């Protein structure tokens, strides 16, 4: 079956395999994939991709070295068609890679027959005839799929690394819908957003900035048709601009999505031709800036603050499209309720000691830090830890509590305990056994809970994903604990962040929520 076929290159010397996905441009050159360090070979020496359906590979030399195939020299910027068992020389006579189709094409039964065919016939078909995919190569760009479509990257062939970056969001910054609809109706539903966008982008490029687009596009996720259309839309925008703009597209919801810095980190570490970036001379422009309703006459509030926070996380100067393209003055904006940059190292837990046997009833939503507090501050003091997450039902929690109290142990109930009815189940048992009950409330906002949960999701792949729906449900149903419920005291417990390594702390101190 066609879907079961594959095509790859085999390094003749090392046997290392490089996959050639169907109709997906791949770069071959001096890079980590080939392990080639020969400075005569360009980092982008050959562009190629396979047509698995036709058992063909399209190839174009774009680098400075003289490349070859089967001992014959190849001309630069011509598209060649090659096939199974043909051998590519990145630098003629050196760095050989054999083309493999699996399963083997029926027309190429044995390698000896193939060699004979190559001697007798011209195997190359120069030019772009019968090659729809050659248009992708000749669009002077290459698409890459990162982390199983968590991110897409488009890099024009003549895109060079520079130490100054002019970064831009796309929708609401570079373009808007031609139809006037909030969301585009098709891939051609776009026009320039403000003023003289094209000339201003050309001007900043001529000032030796590398122009880069960074966009969130979660709506493309798992829809190949939408992805294909969006790629074409990007190519059309860049064709109209006639500039070598590199484009980063965050499709997933993890590290690459703004305001998280995954797209920038990829540019910084892998996609700027090893040229360091001067943060102080670089900038970012975006419309998700946290502006409130009527920031301009009859203008709606910004849908988020993600672009501004993206720039803040990186340390870039930030402009709205109106500030950058129209030179308007900055307007007020609203920052998120929770600021992760605030240093909490001076916070301390209150004294939780108590002279009599008692029960501690924890109150806090997912990500409030209650379990870490219990494990760090109460369990070491001999408290019996009771959690619905471990036991499965409140009835089992009550039974476990009764057993522990009968043994004269102190008990901590590590559940969300969001409302009075839920808490009353444990209060009644304590009263029945004549044991004092205390309430420890995690002093954490809903926004910080969301931040904490996303941080755990990004740093611990084994941690259960907690959706915002669950956290918002907690907020909706929350009832503030009162002494009249039967507590001897109520203590507020702050969230104190603790980190296993510096990278985790650096991530936590970034704005993560869009």
UniProtKB/TrEMBL annotation:
<dbReference type="InterPro" id="IPR006549">
    <property type="entry name" value="HAD-SF_hydro_IIIA"/>
</dbReference>
<dbReference type="GO" id="GO:0003690">
    <property type="term" value="F:double-stranded DNA binding"/>
</dbReference>
<keyword id="KW-0234">DNA repair</keyword>
<dbReference type="InterPro" id="IPR006551">
    <property type="entry name" value="Polynucleotide_phosphatase"/>
</dbReference>
<dbReference type="InterPro" id="IPR036412">
    <property type="entry name" value="HAD-like_sf"/>
</dbReference>
<dbReference type="InterPro" id="IPR041388">
    <property type="entry name" value="FHA_2"/>
</dbReference>
<dbReference type="Pfam" id="PF17913">
    <property type="entry name" value="FHA_2"/>
</dbReference>
<dbReference type="GO" id="GO:0005634">
    <property type="term" value="C:nucleus"/>
</dbReference>
<dbReference type="InterPro" id="IPR027417">
    <property type="entry name" value="P-loop_NTPase"/>
</dbReference>
<dbReference type="InterPro" id="IPR013954">
    <property type="entry name" value="PNK3P"/>
</dbReference>
<keyword id="KW-0227">DNA damage</keyword>
<dbReference type="InterPro" id="IPR008984">
    <property type="entry name" value="SMAD_FHA_dom_sf"/>
</dbReference>
<dbReference type="GO" id="GO:0046403">
    <property type="term" value="F:polynucleotide 3'-phosphatase activity"/>
</dbReference>
<dbReference type="Pfam" id="PF13671">
    <property type="entry name" value="AAA_33"/>
</dbReference>
<keyword id="KW-0378">Hydrolase</keyword>
<dbReference type="GO" id="GO:0006281">
    <property type="term" value="P:DNA repair"/>
</dbReference>
<protein>
    <recommendedName>
        <fullName>PNK FHA domain-containing protein</fullName>
    </recommendedName>
</protein>
<dbReference type="Pfam" id="PF08645">
    <property type="entry name" value="PNK3P"/>
</dbReference>
<dbReference type="InterPro" id="IPR023214">
    <property type="entry name" value="HAD_sf"/>
</dbReference>
<feature type="domain" description="PNK FHA">
    <location>
        <begin position="7"/>
        <end position="75"/>
    </location>
</feature>
<dbReference type="GO" id="GO:0046404">
    <property type="term" value="F:ATP-dependent polydeoxyribonucleotide 5'-hydroxyl-kinase activity"/>
</dbReference>
<keyword id="KW-0539">Nucleus</keyword>
């Amino acid at each position: 079956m066609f879907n079961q076929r594959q095509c790859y290159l085999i390094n003749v010397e090392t046997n290392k395999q490089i996959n050639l996905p169907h109709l997906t441009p791949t770069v071959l050159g001096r890079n980590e994939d080939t392990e080639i360090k020969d400075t005569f070979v360009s980092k982008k020496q050959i562009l190629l991709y396979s047509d698995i359906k036709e058992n063909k590979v399209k190839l174009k030399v774009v680098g400075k070295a003289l490349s070859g195939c089967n001992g014959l020299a190849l001309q630069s910027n011509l598209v060649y068609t090659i096939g199974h068992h043909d051998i590519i020389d990145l630098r003629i006579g050196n760095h050989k890679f054999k083309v493999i189709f699996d399963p083997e094409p029926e027309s190429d039964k044995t390698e000896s027959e193939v060699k004979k065919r190559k001697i007798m016939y011209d195997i190359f078909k120069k030019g772009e005839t019968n090659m729809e995919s050659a248009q992708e190569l000749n669009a002077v760009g290459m698409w890459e799929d990162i982390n199983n479509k968590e991110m897409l990257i488009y890099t024009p062939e003549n895109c060079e690394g520079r130490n100054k970056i002019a970064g831009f969001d796309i929708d609401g910054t570079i373009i808007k819908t031609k139809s006037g609809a909030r969301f585009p109706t098709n891939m051609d539903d776009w026009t320039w957003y403000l003023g003289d966008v094209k000339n201003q982008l050309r001007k900043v490029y001529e000032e030796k900035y590398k122009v880069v687009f960074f966009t969130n596009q979660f709506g493309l996720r798992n829809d190949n048709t939408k992805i294909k259309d969006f790629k074409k839309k990007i190519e059309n925008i860049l064709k109209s601009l006639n500039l070598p703009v590199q484009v980063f597209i965050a499709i997933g919801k993890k590290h690459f999505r703004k305001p998280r810095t995954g797209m920038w980190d990829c540019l910084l570490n892998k996609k700027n031709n090893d040229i360091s970036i001067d943060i102080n001379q670089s900038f970012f422009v975006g419309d998700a800036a946290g502006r409130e309703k009527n920031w301009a006459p009859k203008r709606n509030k910004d849908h988020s603050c993600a672009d501004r926070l993206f720039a803040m996380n990186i340390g870039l100067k930030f402009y709205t499209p109106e500030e950058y393209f129209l030179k308007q003055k900055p307007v007020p904006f609203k920052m998120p309720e929770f600021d992760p940059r605030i240093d909490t190292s001076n916070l301390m837990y209150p004294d939780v000691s108590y002279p009599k046997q008692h029960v501690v009833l924890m109150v806090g939503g997912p990500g409030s830090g209650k379990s870490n507090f219990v494990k760090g501050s109460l369990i070491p003091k001999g408290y019996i830890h009771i959690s619905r997450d471990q036991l499965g039902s409140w009835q089992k929690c009550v039974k476990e509590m009764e057993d522990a109290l009968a043994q004269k142990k102190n008990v901590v109930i590590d559940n969300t305990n969001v409302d009075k009815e839920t808490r009353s189940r444990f209060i009644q048992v304590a009263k029945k056994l004549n044991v004092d009950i205390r309430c420890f409330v995690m002093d954490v906002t809903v926004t910080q809970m969301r931040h904490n949960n996303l941080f755990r999701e990004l740093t611990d792949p084994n941690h259960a994903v907690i959706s915002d729906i669950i956290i918002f449900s907690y907020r909706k149903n929350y009832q503030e604990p009162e002494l009249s419920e039967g507590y001897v005291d109520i203590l507020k417990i702050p969230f104190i962040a603790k980190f296993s390594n510096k990278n985790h702390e650096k991530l936590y101190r970034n704005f993560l929520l869009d």
